[in-house]
Write a structure and sequence with these properties.
Elements: E1 15-16, E2 30-38, E3 41-49, E4 53-55, E5 77-82, E6 98-103, E7 108-116, E8 123-130, E9 136-144, E10 150-155, E11 162-169, E12 174-176
Antiparallel strand pairs: 1-6, 2-3, 3-4, 4-5, 5-10, 6-7, 7-8, 8-9, 9-12, 10-11
Length: 177
């Protein structure tokens, strides 16, 4: 049963993101499918970081999240749940977590599917969706675990402006537009 009415199922069409390590985005950038204005700059592609966020400029391997705005937080980013997530299931983790991407003229979806937090402390299932009218939405299907330190929000290119929705949050449900 679908828990979130805004959930976009990309399980059959989505591309599995090939991460080479636990904290870095692939070098490949992914086409958004349309122009996307973020803090006054137009972007046509994005990066997908395994730690629960997407960005438009440089990658940031920082996994110890902070309150935002902060210079150590990912710049030009949308943080669905920025934390020490581990879709590779390396180290002391076990599980099947994956990250998928799908885009067309109508929307761009990045789905963190049952991604485990480092140390096996939680399973997170959420998606970041971008639209051609420069809006985005974060959909949460299930966020389970007893350890929460995630940051949810957006930050500009210079880390001088941000909208923090949550920091050190333990559990999130619903959607943010």
């Amino acid at each position: 049963e679908l828990l979130d009415p805004d959930w976009i199922d990309i399980s059959e069409d989505g591309i599995l993101i090939p991460f080479e390590n636990n904290d870095d985005a692939p070098e490949e950038r992914f086409p958004i499918g349309f122009n996307f204005n973020f803090y006054g700059t137009m972007y046509t592609e994005l990066l997908i970081n395994p730690n629960g966020w997407v960005g438009f400029e440089d990658d940031n391997s920082q996994y110890n999240n902070t309150s935002i705005p902060h210079v150590n937080a990912p710049h030009a980013s949308i943080m669905g749940y920025w934390d020490d997530l581990n879709p590779l299931n390396t180290g002391n983790n076990t599980g099947e977590g994956t990250v998928h991407y799908d885009s067309d003229d109508d929307r761009c979806v990045i789905w963190f599917n049952d991604v485990i937090r480092w140390g096996g402390l939680g399973t997170y299932n959420f998606q970041i969706v971008l639209y051609p009218d420069y809006t985005f939405q974060i959909n949460y299907y299930s966020m389970e675990g007893n350890y929460g330190s995630g940051t949810i929000g957006i930050q500009n290119q210079t880390a001088t402006d941000a909208m923090e929705v949550a920091y050190n949050t333990n559990y999130t449900t619903g959607d943010l537009t």
